[in-house]
Design goal:
This protein is of the alpha+beta class and 344 residues long. The chain is built from 11 helices and 9 strands. The radius of gyration is 42 Å and the shape is elongated. The site of 3,4-dihydroxyphenylalanine has 12 residues, from strand 7, strand 8 and strand 9.
Amino acid sequence: MKERLEALRREALDRLEAVADAAALNDLRVEYLGKKGKLTEILRGMGGLSAEERPVIGQVANDVRAAIEEVLANKQEAFDRAETARRLRAETIDVTLPGKAPAIGSLHPLTKVQEEIEDIFLGMGYQIAEGPEVETDYFNFEALNLPKNHPARDMQDSFYITDEILLRTHTSPVQVRTMQAANGKTPVKIICPGKVYRRDDDDATHSFMFQQIEGLVVGPNIRMSDLKGTLLQFVREMYGPQMQIRLRPSFFPFTEPGAEVDVTCAKCGGHGCRMCKHTGWIEILGCGMVHPKVLEHGGYDPTEVSGFAFGMGIERIALLKYEIDDIRHFYSNDLRFLKQFAKM
Ligand code: DAH
């Protein structure tokens, strides 16, 4: 039995010496040391040995197992090392190859125009305010002098969530929110950009969602001329120093007096063309002196302070600036459209 064990050792070690890969190595492990392997098979004969022989043969068997296991382990380690080396070689990155340029996006034209408008007003000392898109009836209408059943509510068809909660139809509710937060202090000088929602059918000039920028100044002795000067400054920074504005009387429940502002048609320079319907003027925003009732809702005494406000559509400002003919271009995310603004 001892001879058989020694022969097994030699045979196993010879074959291990010649083994070519990890899979073959594992086969040999099973063949020699496995539960049904050759070593086990020889040891099954131990039962027939005498009590003196048994420990001797047992010792030899252990030696044989240890010798085979050692070579198995060494081989395994060598294969592992070779495999790691092979993978490292296969996955080498040639850092001298030219890279793939990542596709870098650009700001959306509306974002650009919004930031441009913000910069102009920040330059005039305004702060940026925000308000919720889901608004209460009180801030969206009531506090702006539009009580329930006021006919002017029809001017802005709304998405109601409950009787008292709706998607804001304009950024004007931020006027009263800001005044209330100011707690009677002056001056208040803010602009508020944001999304607004109206139940309109989408077409070239309407969208159920669009964006506005509201402006509000409150303080002692704020006059209509301050409003006019501010808007002229804004228009000239936005469209060029040759621009003129004109104010036409208009009505908004939250202003007294109210006005609509036209700017020189940028396309024809005021001579008259198709874009301005041959008037030389393009309407860009609504504005006015803050209505006394609105000042009261904001916590001010209208005999002591006054204010002006304005509201403009960002899309409209952008359409005019870039001579875009359809508002839907802004929302369809057609890269051919968007890429034109990447380098502007
Ligand atoms: N909120 C008005 C609208 O959405 C725009 C507007 C007009 C805002 C006059 C004002 C304002 O602040 O004074 O049509």
